[in-house]
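Researcher: We're teaching a course module on how sequence relates to structure. For the next exercise, students receive a sequence and then see the predicted structure as tokens, so they can try to spot secondary structure elements on their own. Here is the exercise chain.
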Amino acid sequence: QVQLVESGGGLVQAGGSLRLSCVASGSIFSINAMGWYRQAPGKRREVVAVITRGGSTNYADSVKGRFTTSRANAKNTWSLQMNNLKPEDTAVYYCYGSILAITADEDDYWGQGTQVTVTS
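Model: And here is the predicted structure for the students to work with:
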């Protein structure tokens, strides 16, 4: 069984910063792509940032230059540093991992979600 647990998030004023972290645990053989998605009320879930096992990153245009994702392979953790936050960043943020478990095929796993609220 593989689990992803997120931490971080909260309430911040526009221009502020927050850091989200995600830890994967369980019978993990390897973690390939890791990433972050978000879903605002009434909107579809959208990708925010993705980082490959090799460290290559991709970001949504709306967060480029403000958000940075990183990973620590040995610890099965990855994070999302969010700077210069804007009210439009308000959403529930989910971490995501494409994980090969020891006793299963590679599959996508999701964290429980954490609320980020940015006030103007």
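Model: If you want an answer key for the exercise: The longest strand covers residues 28-39. DSSP finds no helices and eleven strands in the chain.
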